[in-house]
Amino acid sequence: MIVVSQSGAAIVGAVLAFVLIAAVWALYAGLAARAAARTAYEQNRRLLRFSRTSPALPMLIRADGRIEMSPRLAAWLGLERPVESLARLSQKDAGLDPEDVALLGEQVEAAQRAGQSFRLSLPVRGSERMLLVLGERASEAVETPGSVLLWVLDATDSQAEVGSLEREADRLRAAFDALTALIEAAPMPMWYRGPDLRLLMVNTAYVRAVEGRDAEDVVSRGVELVDGAGLGGPLANAAIARDTQEPQSAAMPATIAGARRMLRLHDVPLPTGGIAGFAVDIEELERARGGLKRFAEAQRAMLDRMSAGVAQFGSDRSLVFCNQPFRRLFAMKNEWLADRPEFDRVLERMREARKLPDVRDFPHWKAERREWFTSPEAVEESWSIGTTHLRVVAQPLPEGGLLLIFEDQTQQLELQREHGEMQQVRTATLDSLAEAVAVFGKGRLQLWNRKFRQVWGFEDGFLDGHPQIATIVKAAGGKLVNAARAEIIGDLIRLAAKDRQQRGSSITFANGRHFDIAAVPLPDGNALVTMLDTTDRQRVERALRDRNEALEAADRVRTAFVANMSYELRTPLTSIKGFGEMLQGGFAGKLSADGKEYVEAILMSVDRLGGLIDDVLDLTQSEGQPIERETVDVELAATSAADVIAPLAKGKAIELVIEDAGTAGVVQGDARRIRQTVEHLLRHAVSHTPEGGRVLLHLDGNARVARVIVSDDGPGMAPEAVARAFDRFAQVGTSRGGDRALGLGLPLAKQFVEAHGGRIELISEPGQGTLVTVELPRG
């Protein structure tokens, strides 16, 4: 048996009491905690329900970069499941664009560092969804420091509506700007008044019209466009428009740019209560009206001077105007016309004066003429009144009146009769012509003479039908040697009739006759065709051509003969020169002084004859043959030729002078032929210049040609000698030295120059010397 002391019992009792109290407190605390938990649970459930139905979804971005988001937000972003980092918000064809993710990261970092809130609109890739993101630093009571809380709203519909509103605003703004620009660009003054009729806006044309500084200045001072603002002024007109709510217009004078102008002011009431106005300058219109009035007066004055009678009736069928010829033609008195008689009365007055055609039923005739007023088009008649013939034209007027024109054609008809007689004379004249003549017009044969019918052998019935050009051509083809040549006739007629060109050709008939055919345009638009028999001329021309061909063949034979003879002469000439040089060299013994002189004369003659043979060969062989093309120094070729001629000039005591301007340059050609050309010219000049004379060789040129000039102070040449100087094998008669010579140097020079495409010219007069100019092209 355990015995407990009183003190121990007390302690045990105290412990039990403490335990009991603790248990009771624990129970109370548990119950309280349970109630608090239940309250928190209900609150969390309510908040969760709110969050699930809320238009904004949260996204928490922690300081370490991890994010928390709901599956619903992931679905908004097009993601299959929530992600844990910002980088994962951008995926292939889903989430956000990489650029938008980078921008979101920058804004999150700024919010983490400086607590700066932000607002972004981010499109979702692969869809039309637009998300609005509101970001701010998260409260430390909600999350750890450095976290950022994002609220994401689906702003697709609102953004679309905002975009639509922005587009509509842009459209309205553009329309307003365009309207403002239109008003500013308008050449007429425009303005806007408030309900109290004070000016609120004016355009540039208004400012310019009132000579203001700018629109603000004009509005602030209330400068009116039209003089006077009292009764009947612009304000009164605007007040009427405001009160009646109907547009008003009035013509008022104004001073613009120092000149008085007439303006028509228009005031239009607006739904806002204001008045819009604009002014149109009608000064030119008023002047035009005055001009029309003056034109009408001038027209009537002109009608008075016309030879035809003119009468104008108004819409009420009364006579409003008639000219002097009308009054004289129908014997109308001014006193009677002053009452503006009606149309029927005018016709009756004409009948009383016996100025109308004789008709049986005059009332019916008059009623028919009364219908002229309502006729849809002009009516034309011919009236015969005794020996007078009138052409009457009735022209209905747009305003309901009628214009009558009476033209006396008596003289014209007489002229037509005379014209018919002239036509008969013309026909008789054409028939008497020896040429075949025909006139074509409007695509047909209009007129022809007897010779034309005989040449072609056409039947009278065929021609009387005035056949078309194509029919004439077809019928003419079978009568020609070449049927296709008949088309030439149609071509000539068309050129003359349509193109107004005169052309000609020739045709040959099957019977051997030849005709020259020509088409000449006539003033009336027709075409005159003439045919001239040229059979005899063709025969003469054929005989001349045959003779010319025979002469050309004889010339070729002569040229060939001269060439062959030149070759044949070279052989004995070479032998003569060889034996002469042997005699001169002493092979046959020593010669006497006279023998040496004879041998030198023989060798000189042999050289001269050899040179002539060489010239003849050059003249006959080089004709028509192409020259060689190379770069030739004209100065070098000319001085080489001068060196060859220098001994000849020295032997005659002739001064040979070379004058080089330094511009001769080079040409493309045959160096040997160019040197020979200069040599022939110098030899010709030296041989025909008397002893003690002077020969000048001048060289120059430009960018186009090189020029060689050879001149002498010899006796010159007669005009007939100059005309034949370049003729081949021509006897120039007595030369300037007194002996006769063939003169092959100049023809050869001309032939060589022309082969190079150049030009040679000789100028000479008796007693004035001779000048020869050669121009060689650079190319």
TrEMBL record:
Alphabetical UniProt keywords: Coiled coil, Kinase, Phosphoprotein, Transferase
Positions in coiled-coil regions: 155-182
Organism superkingdom: Bacteria
Molecular functions (GO terms): histidine phosphotransfer kinase activity; phosphorelay sensor kinase activity
CDD domains registered for this protein in UniProt: HATPase (cd00075), HisKA (cd00082)
PROSITE patterns: HIS_KIN
Keyword hit for Kinase: yes
SUPFAM superfamilies xrefs: ATPase domain of HSP90 chaperone/DNA topoisomerase II/histidine kinase (SSF55874), Homodimeric domain of signal transducing histidine kinase (SSF47384), PYP-like sensor domain (PAS domain) (SSF55785)
Residue intervals of the Histidine kinase domain: 564-779
Known catalytic reactions: ATP + protein L-histidine = ADP + protein N-phospho-L-histidine
GO terms under cellular component: plasma membrane
EC category: transferase
The protein's Enzyme Commission number: 2.7.13.3
The name this protein goes by in its record: histidine kinase
Annotated source species: Sphingomonas trueperi
